[in-house]
Amino acid sequence: MELLRSNLSRVRIPEPTNRIYKHECCVSFETPRSEGGLFVDMTTFLAFGKDYVGWNYEKTGNPVYLHIKQTRKVVPEDRPSKKPTLLAIGVEGGFDNNEPQYEETHNIVILPDYVTFPFPSVELPEKVRLTVDAIIMAEGAERKEQLAAWTADKKHVSAYAMNLPQIGNDVIVPPSGWKCAKCDKKDNLWLNLTDGMMLCGRKNFDGTGGNNHAIEHYKETSYPLAVKLGTITADLEAADVFSYPEDDSVVDPLLAQHLAFFGIDFSALQKTEMTTAERELDQNTNFDWNRIQESGQDSELIHGPGYTGLANLGNSCYMAATMQVVFSTRSFNSRYYINQSLKTAFEMAPADPTVDLNMQLTKLAHGMLSGKYSVPALEVWKKGQCDKQEGIPPRMFKAVIAASHPEFSSMRQQDALEFFLHFLDQVERVNGGSSALDPSRSFKFGIEERILCPSGKVGFNKRLDYILSLNIPLHEATNKEELEAFHKLKAEKKSEGKDVSSDEIVRPRVPLAACLASYSAPEEIQDYYSTAMKAKTTALKTAGLTSFPDYLVLHMRKFVLEEGWVPKKLDVYIDVPDTIDISYMRSKGLQPGEELLPDGAPEAEVESSNPVANEDIVAQLVSMGFNHLHCQKAAINTSNAGVEEAMNWLLAHMDDPDIDAPISQGAHGNEVDQSKVDTLLSFGFQEEIARKALKASGGDIEKATDWIFNNPDASVSSDMDTSTSSSKPTSDDTELPDGGGRYRLFGIVSHMGTSTHCGHYVAHVRKDSRWVIFNDNKVAASVNPPKDMGYLYFFERLDS
C-alpha cells in the first residue's frame, strides 16, 4: 500500500470533460473481454491491452493503472436459440436476444512490477477510490463519440421557414438543364427559396466546387434559405436545405409549399418517382442484394491473416468495404503492417494516440492483416451459436479519419467513392508528400486534357487524380435485341395495367471497353475562351493519362438525375474482363507541327479575381473564439491554404492597426512585399507562386520556401479557360509510379440500393488466387463474384 501512496501524485481524478477510454486499447483491438483484460492509465485515462501497457509506462512513466477484466457468465440459458419467426421480444417464436452476460472485476496495478491491489477496498487511498469510481461510472469516450455522431444527424427547424417571404412568382424552375445564373457552373447548384435564383455553391480551398455565388447572393439580399438542386425527391425530409444566417443544414416544414411557388409540383414529383425506372429498380432490389452478397450460396468461411472482418458501427459498410480493398494492396500492406510495428507507431504518436492517424492506420492494418482477431465467433461464443467471426470495430480509425469531415463523422450512410478520395487525401497529408512513405501515391496518376481550338492551335491542362470516373454509354449495350423484346413486353403489360415481374426484367449489358473508349473520345466544350481568337468559341477536348499508376481505380457513374428531379441509379450490367490494356490511353503531348495557344485569360476572369475567404476555414477559426472578420482576413491572406496557416497569420497580425478595417476588394494582390517576391524569384520560382507562398506564410521567406516545396500541386489557376502553354510534365508527373498499361482486376466494391447514401456496400477481393467476399464481419470464399455489378473496380498493374 505504501507503493501506491508514493505514486498518488500520478493519479488524477477525471473531470467531466475528460475523455475516458475503457472499452478498447488505443493501439490494438484488445478489450476488457480479452484474455489479459484492459489497463486504464489513471493519469491520461487511455486504455491499453496487456501486451501494450508496458509501452505506455516506458513512454510516459505513468505507473498506476485500473485493470478491467470481463469474464463471461455461464448460465443454463446460455444455449443456441431457435430461429425467430416473428419480430417480437419476449413471446414464443419471437426474437430472443440471447447475448452472453459478463462479470466485470477491477484491480489497481502498479507498473513495472504489476503490483496488484483489489478494488473495491476501504484500505485504498481516497483519491484512488474516487478516481476509480469516476472511471467506472463515466460514459466511455468510444460511446460518447457514437452518441455525438447520432445527435449531430438531427437537423433543427429553421427559424426562417414559417414566415419565409417569396417573390418573383413568374420564375419557373425546370427539372433539368440547370446552370448558375452568374457563371457557367452546372453542378453544386442551390435554389434560393425567396426569389428562385439558381446559383453555385461555395468554392473549396483547393479551387474546386462552386464560385460562392449562392452565399454572395445571400449577403447582398439577406434571403435566408436555399435548397440544393438534385436533392429534391419524393422524400422532402431528405432534401438539403441550408440556412445562411443560421449557418447550418435545417428542416423546412413548408418546403413543398415553397417549391410549388416556383412550379415544382411535389404531388407530381411523388407520382413521377413511382412510375419511372426507379420502380423497376426497386422491384429488383432483392435480386441485387442476393447476388452481390451471394446469399444462399454455400460459401466457405475463411479465417487467418488478411481475412479479418470489420464490425459494422452503424452505416459504416462504405468504409469497411473500401478498407478491405485498400489494405489488400502491397503499398498499404507494406507501409502500415510489414514495415511499421505497433510499437514504432506508438512511440512516434503524440500524447494521445487515439487522435493520430498514423497510429490508427497502423492499428487497423495490424488488426486486419495479422490474423490475431480473425477467429470464428463460435470459438468466442458457445459452439453452434454463430458461424461468423465477430470482426474488429474500427471506431478510433473512423473518429480520426472523419474528424475534418462533417458527413463521415456522422452515422449516416455515405458514398464509398467520396470516402476513398477523402481517405487518400488524409493519408497523403499525414505522410507529408514523401514518395518513399506515402502509399496513396500508388493510386495517383496524371491526366492531360488536350484542347483543340478552331484556330488550329492547341492547349493542355494537366491535373492529378486517384480515380478514373467513367460514363456508361447505354447505346453501346451488347444485348439490344433482348432489350427491345423486354421493352415491348413492358409496354404490353402496361396497357393491361400490369407490372413486369423481377425475373422478366432485362438490363443493358455494356462492355467496360466501351466506357473506357467514351472517356477518351473527343468532347465539345461550349463557350471556351480561346486566347488565340480572343473570344469564346466551341473547342474539342480529348483526355489521356500521363502515367499509369500501380493501382487503377475505375468509378462507374451509375447515379444520374432523371427528368422529374429524381436521382436515378442506372439499371445496368458492366461486362468487366479479368485483364485490361489501356496503353492506347496514354497522352502524347505536343506533336510536331502543332502550335500552342498563347498565354492569357478572359477579361471577365481577371476582373472577377477578388479574394474570397474559405468558409470552412473561417468557421473553424470562429469556433475557437476568434473574430469573424479577422478570420476572413486570415484565410484570404494565406490563400485559403488551411486552418493552421490561417491561425499562424492571425496570431502574427492581431495587433495590426488595420485588423478591424473592412476587407478591401482588389487590394489583396498588392499586400506582399515586392522585395521578398524578388528574393524568391532569384531562387527560380515563378512570381505568382512566390506571391501565393508569401501570403500563405505570413511574409516569412523561409516558411514561404518550405510552403512551395510542401505544396508541389500549387498553381495560379486551374480554370478550364486558362490555356496552358507548356506540354512538359511537371515534377509530380515524373515522380509518380508509371509502367505499362496492362492491368488485372483484383477488387470490387459493389453497392445495393437506389442511392449512394443508402443501401449497403460489399467488397470482393482476389486473394491467394481466389475471390473472397468481405461483407462487414463476414469473410468467405466467393462462389460467384458480381463482376458486372461493381461501383468501384480496382486493378493492379501487370507491367513494370
UniProtKB/TrEMBL annotation:
Reaction(s) this enzyme catalyzes, per UniProt: Thiol-dependent hydrolysis of ester, thioester, amide, peptide and isopeptide bonds formed by the C-terminal Gly of ubiquitin (a 76-residue protein attached to proteins as an intracellular targeting signal)
Binding residues annotated for Zn(2+), in chain numbering: C180, C183, C200, H213
InterPro entries named in the record: Papain-like_cys_pep_sf (IPR038765), Peptidase_C19_UCH (IPR001394), Ub_carboxyl-term_hydrolase (IPR050185), UBA (IPR015940), UBA-like_sf (IPR009060), Ubiquitinyl_hydrolase (IPR016652), UBP13_Znf-UBP_var (IPR041432), USP (IPR028889)
Residues of the active site: C317 (nucleophile), H760 (proton acceptor)
Domain of life: Eukaryota
Classification via CDD domains: Peptidase_C19B, UBA2_atUBP14
The UBA domain, residue ranges: 612-653, 671-711
UBP-type domain ranges (all copies): 156-266
GO biological process: one example: cell communication
UniProt keyword Zinc present: yes
UniProt feature, compositional bias: Low complexity: 715-729
Region: Disordered, residue numbers: 712-739
Segments forming domain USP: 308-798
Keywords per UniProt: Hydrolase, Metal-binding, Protease, Repeat, Thiol protease, Ubl conjugation pathway, Zinc, Zinc-finger
Described function: Recognizes and hydrolyzes the peptide bond at the C-terminal Gly of ubiquitin. Involved in the processing of poly-ubiquitin precursors as well as that of ubiquitinated proteins.
Family: Belongs to the peptidase C19 family.
Protein name: Ubiquitin carboxyl-terminal hydrolase
Species the sequence originates in: Salix viminalis
Lineage per the UniProt record: Eukaryota, Viridiplantae, Streptophyta, Embryophyta, Tracheophyta
